[in-house]
């Protein structure tokens, strides 16, 4: 018995490195200002190349909240389930209308607005009508520029020629987004503004969308690729209903690894709070 015990201990000791290697994979770091710095890629993977000033680069460099921050709802309370996020986009919630699809709409709109592509900012409302940012801006400027001037008992309209300031324009843009939030939905996004794609076509900015339960939408915010096999892995992010922070979700199938590998998408695809059925991939048309 005395001889068996040392052998048993030695055997267990030999197995410790194996188990520690399996479970010590910690890809989410406490430091880092964006997902590139905060979330490392799996071993032998490398992030795919993206174009400068592209939407993909915009998402990769989007500021994150401090590690350990809770996911908040629009009323300031914490989301009941705090176990599903890997990190949180530092994007203050723009009212209780900024729900799942509206968070994605906001990211696309603000990217176009901040990158000098304002002419592309356009969304279909639930009734099928198109709401263009440039039309909204023109209308806001027209209303702003009309002033009344009293001369004796004569009241006439005159044009106020002072140019619109940057802060005023930003206010107009916020009002535009709130109007879009109020009059769009996941169904209008699906019907008018997206098209089905296959998994091998997936790019950063594409979404997982289930028509049968449109309250759940995930967007691909980063992609990496194996340097050996060519297999791809994706980071997924989502908002919530009721409105909440927008955050990168964990992968329930992997320990300390939030990346969703291609093999994880043998449909149905399991995320922490929803299971997406087959043919759930779609591409949004906002950048066209």
| Average of pLDDT | 86
Range of helix content: 25-40%
Parts with pLDDT < 50 across at least 5 consecutive residues: 1-24, 148-153
Give the overall shape, derived from the CA principal axes: globular
Number of helices: 7
Query: What is the string of helix and strand elements?
Result: HHEHEHEEHEEHHEEEEEEEEE
N/C terminus separation: 75 Å
Cα-atom Rg, whole angstroms? Answer: 24 Å
Strand content: 15-25%
- The SS-based structural class is alpha+beta
Q: Count the beta strands.
A: 15
Q: Describe it for me?
A:
This protein is an alpha+beta fold and 288 residues long. Helices cover 29% and strands 21% of the residues. The chain is built from seven helices and 15 strands. It has helices spanning 4-23, 35-38, 55-60, 100-114, 133-145, 166-183, 186-193, and strands at 45-47, 85-88, 122-124, 130-132, 146-151, 154-159, 194-196, 207-209, 217-226, 232-238, 247-249, 260-261, 269-270, 275-276, 281-284. Strands 1, 2, 7, 8, 9, 10, 11, 12 and 15 form a nine-stranded antiparallel β-sheet that branches. A two-stranded antiparallel ribbon has the order 3-4. The chain has a two-stranded antiparallel ribbon with strand order 5-6. The longest helix is centred in the first third of the chain and has 20 residues, at 4-23.
